[in-house]
Task: inverse folding
């Protein structure tokens, strides 16, 4: 992924924000200057801007849709966004809200296309609207139609949070591989929490794995209830 | 059956469909919008109809009309929208129509904000609209409970011919957790012989309640009152956590109940015998949960995402026997378990 702009798209709750934050951190650790654009104007729960302090501490630049009014729910977009895409001398990562959030992305399609991009579809097959090949393909087509941009890869983010096991990830991978063939784009990587890494190495070969550190999960949710 | 990862709002919608809900009328509002959104996509697949009404007022009155024909129907909103539905809710209660109404609470008063709260407690449990009535109120604390209680809500509504409210806060509506869907209930429910289904071969029915004499009005009110008293002992639900040997007890529902469970464990690590009563029915308030423990407990603390509403029901049950304290967060803020423990220790002089 050498393009200047990496866009993460997918259905609601596919895990875009978690993946975005982890990907930004990884690229920063590889020595790149990283700007993360939070383009989620769908609703104010569980968004990357909640991670502002953390991202700052890691030296990652965060550009939000409407600075200082995170709860306003106004469909307003910061002029900074266009600036970073066009002129930023950095790796740009865009976190797009929900599936209909792709409409917002369309606003910047021309600049993104000029800058060069990878658009990655984040998929969790345990989510109700991307649970099989047809619905994944439909979601991909919907995002492409709304954004005016092409999906160039898929990220397998199949999980059941604390109840995830390796079989679950492998089952997800089978469905996603079929969707990847239909869409004619590669599976770029598979995500998982670090506790699954050892087993994954035995059961999954030929794919890059992005280990996830889970943010946005408060202490009282880190237990089974 | 395999598990799905669902948002609370999606789980409510799917559970409603699996409970045989065929009609949904609503008007979108954060943080409950995924409910109408999900219904708009899925309800037609089971031969149902989703309709986005022109307002919350219209939606609740459509619910009235649909329920009067005996069909299972639901509406959903968030606090300001729930306020708008109160007149219709009072009308539903008056003519004893079953319906499920969801309130995914956000900050108030007024337009308030989008963050999670539990500050509609008074409005939801004490009626909300005019007149003497109580809907049954169910308060989930997990996404799985949003599934289970939505299914139960439809049964309770039909069984007792009453509106049932699902009361949850914005966090529960928005957060995702793994869920599974049990098979629909096979409960033996009363035949809806009161429903307006076309009067072929029978007397016509009339689902309306304007009282032309005070005597009829009195009879109707006393009938509802009798029904409330019948429901009260029968549908109380709660979950007790480490109350057996507890010297102090937190009372908290929904998200604050869940956070409080972690707070109980933190306090226990410090040697404090703290327990938790998590009401699942907010009306009727689970008085039975307090039976037999009032003598062993030195004090209660109500933990709420409000400035203190349920605490009044806790005080009614405790009836002055021991102190009842309060800790809350407002306006969309949520407490960390540590804050609850700190406040608890300070208020009971345990530092």
Result:
């Amino acid at each position: 992924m050498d393009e200047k702009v990496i866009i993460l798209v997918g259905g609601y709750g596919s895990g875009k924000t978690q993946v975005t934050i982890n990907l930004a951190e990884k690229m920063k650790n590889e020595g790149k200057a990283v700007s993360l654009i939070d383009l989620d104007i769908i609703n104010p729960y569980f968004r990357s801007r909640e991670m502002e302090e953390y991202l700052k501490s890691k030296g990652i630049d965060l550009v939000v849709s409407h600075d200082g009014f995170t709860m306003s729910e106004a469909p307003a977009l910061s002029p900074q966004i266009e600036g970073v895409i066009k002129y930023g001398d950095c790796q740009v990562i865009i976190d797009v809200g929900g599936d209909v959030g792709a409409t917002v992305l369309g606003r910047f399609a021309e600049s993104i296309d000029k800058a060069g991009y990878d658009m990655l579809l984040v998929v969790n097959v345990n989510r109700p609207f991307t649970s099989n090949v047809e619905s994944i393909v439909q979601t991909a087509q919907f995002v492409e139609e709304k954004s005016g941009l092409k999906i160039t890869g898929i990220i397998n983010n199949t999980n059941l949070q604390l109840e995830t096991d390796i079989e679950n990830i492998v089952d997800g991978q089978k469905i996603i591989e079929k969707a990847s063939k239909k869409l004619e784009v590669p599976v770029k990587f598979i995500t998982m929490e670090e506790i699954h890494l050892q087993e994954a190495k035995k059961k999954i070969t030929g794919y890059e794995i992005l280990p996830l550190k889970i943010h946005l999960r408060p202490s009282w949710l880190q237990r089974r209830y | 059956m395999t598990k799905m990862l669902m948002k609370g709002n999606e789980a409510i919608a799917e559970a409603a469909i699996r409970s045989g809900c065929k009609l949904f009328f609503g008007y979108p509002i954060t943080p409950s919008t995924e409910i109408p959104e999900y219904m708009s996509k899925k309800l037609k697949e089971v031969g149902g109809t989703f309709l986005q009404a022109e307002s919350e007022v219209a939606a609740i009155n459509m619910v009235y009309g649909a329920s009067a024909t005996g069909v299972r129907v639901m509406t959903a909103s968030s606090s300001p929208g729930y306020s708008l539905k109160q007149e219709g809710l009072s009308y539903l209660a008056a003519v004893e129509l079953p319906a499920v109404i969801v309130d995914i609470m956000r900050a108030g008063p007024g337009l308030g904000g989008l963050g999670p709260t539990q500050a509609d407690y008074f409005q939801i449990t004490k009626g909300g609209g005019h007149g003497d009535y109580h809907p049954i109120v169910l308060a989930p604390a997990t996404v799985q409970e949003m599934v289970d209680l939505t299914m139960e809500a439809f049964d309770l509504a039909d069984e007792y011919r009453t509106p049932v409210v699902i009361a949850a806060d914005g966090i529960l509506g928005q957060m995702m957790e793994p869920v599974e869907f049990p098979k629909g209930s096979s409960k033996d429910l009363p035949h809806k012989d009161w429903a307006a289904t076309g009067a072929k071969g029978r007397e016509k029915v009339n689902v309306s309640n304007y009282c032309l004499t005070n005597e009829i009005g009195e009879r109707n009110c006393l009938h509802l009152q009798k029904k409330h008293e019948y429901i009260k002992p029968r549908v109380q639900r709660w979950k007790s956590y480490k109350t057996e040997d507890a010297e102090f007890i937190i009372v908290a529902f929904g998200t604050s109940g869940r956070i409080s469970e972690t707070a109980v464990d933190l306090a226990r690590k410090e040697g404090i015998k703290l327990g938790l009563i998590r009401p699942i029915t907010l009306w009727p308030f689970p008085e039975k949960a307090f039976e037999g423990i009032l003598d062993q407990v030195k004090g209660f603390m109500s933990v709420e995402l409000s400035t203190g509403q349920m605490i009044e029901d806790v005080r009614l049950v405790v009836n002055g026997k021991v102190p009842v304290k309060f800790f809350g967060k407002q306006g969309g803020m949520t407490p960390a378990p540590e804050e609850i423990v700190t406040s608890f220790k300070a208020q009971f002089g345990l530092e």
